[in-house]
């Protein structure tokens, strides 16, 4: 049986990818409704040989919808997700609005698909940096246990939406023309100060908490524990934005639950892990890079090394397309699991 689907934020960086993935993966759709703000109402989007007309998001938009994808920011999810659920939809939410709520499943299908069992209502899609990290670490954790994660991220601007992509492009031109660089979006639209991202690196994603960590860092720390179902796991993150359009990279240090494990043991596990591809051959200069991960579904892992001093410590370099596995693809994979319950 086929389902009626809605995409809220359909004109955005992630929303457009959700539509692409639904079509590419032959998701069993009866109809697709594209929703955005009033500004975009009437805009036409052509995909898969079909032209869709974007509508303004209102509570009634969700009448008859079985699955609603939300990717229009936390405020919009808070405003409309319950309206959609009240009308019988399952919501797959890409924002951080509901991720840490105890009753709401936070799902990466390769890791904790069973959290979806029998669930309706709202399902949360984790933060992009969290998704690629847990997808790569799951097989290691399953086999050897995982005690500690120390991660530094190298995140692309598309994670901050299409306005941030435009900002990087226009600043790059301003730089070439030796014009004054205009910064209005990054590090985050609501921030007091804005800094250039072109030819720069910004160690702030989202706003700061009183602890001195940013909300992005806290998302990675808290969501990882929730997805792995392990509150004892020690996780700490430093999240950094760089002038890359798409593809997040991560330098990840882990301490596993067993000593005497080799790099080859880790490689053997990752070689057969779902959704993971190893690119790791220093002799051939083979390692993952965001430019080559863009447009790909997989999580790429390379630079796997044993820590020189800690007997259970390893270092990995993990790269994935933040709009795909980090967002749209993971959401559609959740929907693919859910259709089994709906029917
Ligand atoms: P719109 O294009 O009409 O502004 P991105 O993450 O790339 O910045 O995209 C944000 C998405 O959220 C866009 O699709 C945007 O639509 C949508 N959006 C923004 N404000 C609203 C709103 N008030 N109601 C519904 N969708 C919204």
TrEMBL record:
The active site is at 128 (acyl-thioester intermediate), 248 (proton acceptor). CDD domains: ASADH_C_bac_euk_like, VcASADH2_like_N. It is an enzyme of class 1 (oxidoreductase). The keyword RNA-binding does not apply. NADP(+) binds at residues 11-14, 39-40, 158-159, 322. InterPro entries: Asp_semialdehyde_DH, Asp_semialdehyde_DH_beta, NAD(P)-bd_dom_sf, Semialdehyde_DH_NAD-bd, Semialdhyde_DH_dimer_dom. It comes from the Bacteria. The keyword Oxidoreductase applies. Substrate binds at residues 155, 241. Phosphate binds at residue 99. Pathway: Amino-acid biosynthesis; L-methionine biosynthesis via de novo pathway; L-homoserine from L-aspartate: step 2/3; Amino-acid biosynthesis; L-lysine biosynthesis via DAP pathway; (S)-tetrahydrodipicolinate from L-aspartate: step 2/4; Amino-acid biosynthesis; L-threonine biosynthesis; L-threonine from L-aspartate: step 2/5. Keywords: Amino-acid biosynthesis, Diaminopimelate biosynthesis, Lysine biosynthesis, Methionine biosynthesis, NADP, Oxidoreductase, Threonine biosynthesis. It catalyses: L-aspartate 4-semialdehyde + phosphate + NADP(+) = 4-phospho-L-aspartate + NADPH + H(+). Its EC number is 1.2.1.11. Residues 4-119 form the Semialdehyde dehydrogenase NAD-binding domain. GO terms for biological process: 'de novo' L-methionine biosynthetic process; diaminopimelate biosynthetic process; isoleucine biosynthetic process; lysine biosynthetic process via diaminopimelate; threonine biosynthetic process. Pfam families: Semialdhyde_dh, Semialdhyde_dhC. GO terms for molecular function: aspartate-semialdehyde dehydrogenase activity; NAD binding; NADP binding; protein dimerization activity. Catalyzes the NADPH-dependent formation of L-aspartate-semialdehyde (L-ASA) by the reductive dephosphorylation of L-aspartyl-4-phosphate. Belongs to the aspartate-semialdehyde dehydrogenase family. PANTHER family: ASPARTATE-SEMIALDEHYDE DEHYDROGENASE (PTHR46278:SF2), DEHYDROGENASE, PUTATIVE-RELATED (PTHR46278). Homodimer. This is Aspartate-semialdehyde dehydrogenase. It comes from Sporosarcina limicola.
